[in-house]
Amino acid sequence: MKNKILTIAIVAGLFSGAVGMAQAACPEGNYAAKGWNPGVPTTGKESYTGTVVIKSVGSLCQVDWKIGTQTFGGLGTYEPASKMLYVSYASLGAGWFGIVFYKDAGATLNGQWAVYNDKSGKLGAEILTKQ
Fold first, then answer.
1. CB pairs under 8 A, 24+ apart, for 72-78?
2. 58-70, pLDDT tens digit by residue?
């Protein structure tokens, strides 16, 4: 229970800081995704591929992933000064959640992610390429 409360506090803190900074439109569009699970080196073959759609909803960014047969939904903010997109997401079918942050590099968004209750203590990686 203590870990769950700590995780929720961390996610809330991430958003409280990011929401106050959000001033620009999201990096909207359709993206091809490739990613590596926590602990898998990004120099090797990716662990998964899929598609991602990012759209603005007011001052927030809605992010929808389709990875194989799985769907994930997220909500976040874009911080223009650092070109960072911060998103909290959930598995729409399985009921778990995580966080991801992306660095906007123009044609790509380079991200790192984590899932609540993952015992590895490592980050996964994801690259979104604008289509």
1. 74/100, 76/15, 76/18, 77/15, 77/18, 77/19, 77/21, 77/22, 78/22, 78/24, 78/25, 78/26, 78/27, 78/104
2. 999 999 999 999 9
Q: What percentage of the chain has pLDDT greater than the value 90?
A: 76
DSSP sequence for 96-126: -EEEEEEEE-SSEEEEEEEETT-TT---EEE
**Tokens 């929808």, residue located:** 64
Q: How far is CA 117 from the centre of its chain?
A: 16
Q: Does domain 2-130 have CATH number 2.40.128.120?
A: yes
User: Residue 10, SS3?
Assistant: helix
pLDDT band at 7 (very low <50, low <70, confident <90, very high): very low
* Burial (Cβ within 10 Å: 0-12, 13-18, ≥19) of residue 26: buried
* CA-based end-to-end distance of the chain: 42
Query: Which residues have a Cβ under 8 Å from the Cβ of 32 and sit 6 or more positions away?
Result: 49, 50, 51, 52, 128, 129, 131
